[in-house]
Fold this sequence. Notes:
heterodimer, A: mainly beta, 3-stranded antiparallel β-sheet, 9 strands, B: mainly beta, 7-stranded mixed β-sheet, 4-stranded antiparallel β-sheet, 11 strands, globular
Amino acid sequence: SYELTQPPSVSVSPGQTARISCSGDALSEKYTYWYQQKPGQAPVLVIYKDNVRPSGIPERFSGSSSGTIGTLTISGVQAVDEADYYCQTRDSSGAYVFGTGTKVTVL
Amino acid sequence: QVQLEESGGGVVLPGRSLRLSCAASGFTFMTYAMHWVRQAPGEGLEWVAIISKDATNKDYADSVKGRFTISRDNSRETLYLQMSSLGPEDTAVYYCAREEAEAGTFGYGLDVWGQGTTVTVSS
């Protein structure tokens, strides 16, 4: 089955840049989506189709994809960005797949 | 406002069945594909199932295929998940979510989620 692998955790100081990777076979040939989830809350879509921000998502969130790696970048990290982040795509059969998740800690 | 509200969760014995509902409001339900996604305690997100906007196409995660059935009633603007042969591994918060997508294509992401309903499978 198709798998998306993310680092378990990323730590970043306020104002710095956080980069979260998402690794999957031929990922750049698919679209990658990113979700933010805070404790006790439902996920929120922050990036769709690799690099598009939905309405209402701050400009500091951006996405990219190359080869087997998708990347979510948070520029100028703020305390409110502390959360779990999940990537997502669809495999060759059309099934949806979520990544393993990354906990972002703002120091 | 745009809203999804799940219901139907609870504690259920192993091997039994349960039906979840997801009521939509504030948007044109019949124009969106709908998903169920679950999250076991302390774990990550797991996609469960998708149904196309006209219910002609459905797909399931391997972990629930043959046990769970997704359906929708566009006249009632409600999504359902019929779960049978439940086991402890099905214990999770179950979320419904919408996606603007055509069957078989990459859509615009799961952009609206409900707050979830908790299913606990335990004897």
